């Protein structure tokens, strides 16, 4: 999954871009935070994708 798709998922689930440092964007929703590295043309590591789905599920409350 590329970073653009991960970003789209976060934004659809009401996460907002908090800030950016270099190629890393930090998204927040309440107390939850997710950092996505935006390296063009690269696919996210499976651990980051797992964290992404877990935090979206937990933040739905």
TrEMBL record:
Belongs to the HicA mRNA interferase family. Keywords: Endonuclease, Hydrolase, Nuclease, RNA-binding, Stress response, Toxin-antitoxin system. One of its GO terms (molecular function) is endonuclease activity. The keyword RNA-binding applies. It comes from the Bacteria. InterPro entries: HicA_mRNA_interferase (IPR012933), HicA_sf (IPR038570). Pfam families: HicA_toxin (PF07927). This is Addiction module toxin, HicA family.
